[in-house]
Design a protein that fits this description.
Layout: H1 2-8, H2 15-43
Length: 44
């Protein structure tokens, strides 16, 4: 849903801000996923 909204307003001046926020959020999620996978790897 969020991605659909961001694509809909792609031509707006807020595109840069929205894309920066999305990149920020996704990089944090990716870092957290990497962290969790490292923890699960260490358990075995």
């Amino acid at each position: 849903m969020a991605m659909r909204i961001s694509w809909r307003y792609l031509n707006w001046p807020y595109q840069k801000i929205v894309s920066d926020i999305c990149v920020n959020v996704f990089s944090k999620i990716d870092a957290k996923a990497t962290f969790l996978s490292e923890i699960s790897d260490n358990e075995y």
